[in-house]
Amino acid sequence: MKKIYVSLFALLLTVTLSAQTKWSIDKSHSKVGFSVSHLVITDVSGNFKNFDVYVETNGDDFENAKIDFWADVNSINTENEGRDKHLKSDDFFNAEKFPKIIFKSKSLKKVSGNKYQLVGDFTMRDVTKQITLDVAFKGIVKDPWGNTKAGFKVTGEVNRFDYGLKWNNTLETGGLVVGKDVELIVDVQLVKQK
After folding, report:
1. Taking the model in full, what pTM does it have?
2. For the stretch 11-20, what's the b/e string if a residue is b when 16 or more beta carbons lie within 10 angstroms of its beta carbon?
3. CA–CA gap between residue 111 and residue 168 (Å, rounded)
4. What torsion do the CA atoms of 72, 158, 85, 91 make, to the nearest 10 degrees?
5. What digits encode the pLDDT tens for the residues 120-130?
């Protein structure tokens, strides 16, 4: 009887492991962006040029996917060299001491239709806090070269003060030169590994 249980467990483990699907990111069709208010009246947007993500799913079902993401702070780009240099300094990211922004998922749950909610640990400047992000699943297709691709838009918000990015000046009106809440806008195209 013991042998039967061991055999069933081994079979179940084999089936479970074989059902795991790994996905890599198609960087040329993905963008890790952000937007923050400036002088209260406009928004400044930017992105990170160097990033990567590891995704593991149960087949093509993304619910409960395992997601590990990082972005290289030194690759920040706001289309303004002086501003980018300031953002890399200790006033903001301190890219020399804290070169990566990291996200590790805890759960990805379907809310309705193509809407999901992603919960995970977000680390910036060595401070880790749990955040919740909204995910729109855009679908799965085969490209003309036979690759299976999956598309997503991920959005959310973090308070930069919570992570030690506290540089600021106050305007005469009482508003902040740079807003405290940073909007995250991430477009992701994944490629199923063969």
Report:
1. 0.82
2. eeeeeeeeee
3. 37
4. -120
5. 999 999 999 99
